[in-house]
Structures are given as C-alpha cells and as structure tokens.
Specification:
By secondary structure, the chain is an alpha/beta fold. The chain has 12 helices and 21 strands. The strands form 4 sheets. Strands 12-13-14-15-16-17-18-19 form an 8-stranded parallel beta barrel. A 7-stranded antiparallel beta sheet has the order 4-5-6-10-9-8-7, sandwiched between helices.
Length: 508
Amino acid sequence: MHKTKLWFYSILSILLLVLMNGQPIDANAANSTYSKYVNSARGYQLNYPSNMEVDDSIGQIRTLFHDDQTQIEIYYDNFYNTVHDANTYINYSNNFIANKKDHLVEYNKTTKVAEKKVHILKWHRNKLAKVENDKNYYFSAEIIKNKNEVFTIFIKSAQPISNEMDIVKSFKIQKPIGNVAAMPSPLFKQSTPESKQLSEETKAVLQQYFSKDSSLTWGIFEPSAPGTMTKLNQIEERVNHEFSFLIRYSDLDEQVPVQEFMNAYNEGKLLELTLQTSHSKIDDSSIFYDILNGKYDEYLHQYAKNIKEFGHPVLFRLNNEMNGDWCVYSSYYFSKDTDLYKEVWKYIYHIFDKEEIDNVLWVWNPNHDSMPGFAWNHSVLYYPGDEYVDIVGLTAYNTGTYYSGEKWTNFFTLYQSLYNEYSALSAKPLMITEFGSNSVGGDKSQWIQNMFSNIDKFPRIKVTIWWSGTDWDSKGNPARIYRLDENEAVLDIFRLNFEKYNNRSVGF
C-alpha cells in the first residue's frame, strides 16, 4: 500500500477510536507505561497505567481502572440544578478527615493544573486485619471545570501511591461528544434460591411473598411491637386488617431478642430485622474499621446463633440507608470508600454462613436520595453483589415541610421514578421496606388515598411496610409525624382502603 494511504488510514483509525465513548487507546504500545483513555461523552481524557483494566460498565456513575493492587475511579458531578457548587462539593466530600484518629493526611492543598483549579488530598489509614489486600492508601483530586461542574480522580491502593500527579497532570477537559452509555439492565441479577442453603420454611416465604405472581402484602412498624403486641392489635382491629410483616430495629448495644421474635411468630408475623452497626452513646467514628479488624466477631457470631435459635424465616436488613450522611456507616465518614460498606456486608454474611444460618433473606436497602448527592456516594456503588442479596428494598418518605427546604410530595410522584430506576437495575424482588407521610405541610389522608390509588401501578413491589412512628427535632418537638394512628381521619382512610383490598381477589 502507498505510504500516504497507510498514513491516512492510521490517522482515521485513531480518530474513530477517540470518538468511541470510553474506549482505551494505547499511548505508545509496549514501550509506554501509560495508556490514554478518552471519554468523549463526559468530555475528558487522561493517562492511566497500561497494566490496568478499564471498566466502564456503569459509566453513568464512574469509570474504573484497576489491577490487583490499585483502583483509579473517575467521577463527574454537575450542580447546575442543585444547591451545591464546586466549592461546597470539595469541602463536604472531604469532611471525613476530621477523624484524625483513623485518617492520616499527607497533604491537603489547592493548586492549578492546565489553568484549572484542582484540590488535592492524600491520606492513608491502618491496614484492616479482615480485608484481603486492603487498599488503605488514598488520593483524590477534584478538578474544577467551572463553578457547577467537577471531575474527581479517586485513587486507592494496597501500596503507597507515588504517581498521582502524573495522572492528574495528564487529565484534559474537552468538549463532550455523544451520550453516556446506559447501565446494564438488569445490573443486579436474580439469585437462584436453589443455590443458597435455605430452610424449607424460608423458601416457602420467598415463594409466597416474593415470587412473580405474589400479590402485595402489607406490614407495619409499630414502636412497641413485637415486644408487646397490644398497641398493634388495637390498630389492626381499628383498620380491619392484619399486618403480615413487622420491623424490629437493633444495634450493637443489644443482642437478638429471641422472645420478641417468638411474640411475632406466634401471631403470624414475619420480621424485617434491621441491624444498624452503631451504638446509641458510644463514638462510632471507627465502627467499620473496628468490625473489619475483628473487634465485633464474638458479638456477630452470637447474633447469628440467636437468629438460628429462633429458627423461623427472617428478612435481614443490614445497615439500611447507607447512602445517607445521617448514618454512621455511610462512606461519607470512611474515606469516600463505598467498598468498605461492601466489605462489612460480606464479612457479616460469611459469619452467618459459618454459623450455618438457613432462615435469613438478605435485604439491601438504600435511601431514595443519596445525601450528599455526589457521584461517589451513588447507591449502586454500595451494592455488595448478587450472591449476597435476596431482596432489594426501596425507601422514600413524604417528609412534609417541617424543615426549611423540604416539600410535600405525593406517593405516585415519590415512587414512580424510584420504581422505574430499580425495576431496570434489578431482577430481584422489590419491596418498600419502610415509608410514610408526614402530616405537616399537606393533607395526610389525601396522600394515603393517592398511595392506595396508585400502588397497583408498581406490580414488582411485593411487600410494603408503613412506618408508624414520629421523628423528633433537636428540641424534642414532633417534626415528622408518620403515625398510622395519628387521628381518626387517618385510621378511617386506611380502614376503607383495606376493606377494598381485602375484598379483591387479586392484591395490589
């Protein structure tokens, strides 16, 4: 072939590769230690170590470069329609360094790279005894495109990081071309029940309540149940409906209350047991590090043994709403590292396996809004893996308007986008693990009627649990009143709709 034509086709091939969204391009073949990556849709390029693999499977959230020792994660945040901007993003994202006990900062400064303002932070923590190949060395760079757009380079490694600035200096912002590829659908695959060691009774629960043909079943959180069932029985009599599921919360200050579990079982109730790895009056700033160093091994083994002693099916919801900064187990407090949440989940899961627990269905349950609403805190990044999850839980409340900035949102508006998102993401059964409506800011009875009128539009939701409690403000005043028995009007609207529900041959 003529040399001119050869040169032309070589250039054409390179241009075609550049235009392909998220495709790696070799910088200089085997003679280079770096390869070039171009993300046309997000509008950037950078060099990454050539030995690393590129994973753009969830490119809407992040791009990942990795080998056995190191991960490089790239995030893009757009704050045009939010209360945040680039500066608040940088400050809020890095609040975890206030925990100087666990995080040793090597440097924390702002510089300029290619005329762009860049905040760089480097830190490390101690190795965790129970995490294989623990990546405890960190670096992040927030590259400000403008006051509303930020790129983040996040690096973590099992070894000290030395090439961070080479990667940052190679980062170039360019004009976006094309669209970001959609995430795989479903991203969360269905587990095969036969592959898990489940008791026959637990398999029956999975089939009865969470199969494709299961109709909607109702549950409730009533604060005194299942310790005592008196109040719950009064509510059930008033609304003419028996709830099939109860929520029982627990934390690291108590063990499994087997007698309470028996109270529920004796009245035909199934439990959604929620373990939140926290304490009520103890500093929890190191809780994940403590768990992954084995400090809670004895406690967790006994916890599993007590569930086994109970012997009947339990929905086990571990560390729910983890993408909310009100939870001490959010990655907001642990180096922005969502993998630590997954490590804790898998660690506890394997403890249950060692104790041969066969009466537990694992429920993974983020909040509908990530707070902070940054890409590195996206709920998908907390997902521990298909083999560790049986049911995906949805949680969205109409919080009302007690606090500044909140708004009244009807049920359909609240759940339509959430349902569509998780129906596309997950092949697993869906449930509303807890929800409710405040009475401050609107007509609660009307909200409940909207809920009953629309919930059948979400047929993959198989169980829904009303949270009949109250959130209090810092002065002890009721801020969010979700109680089902708040007044006669609320009780009546539930009774009327439950009567319609009970008379239907097919549930919602």
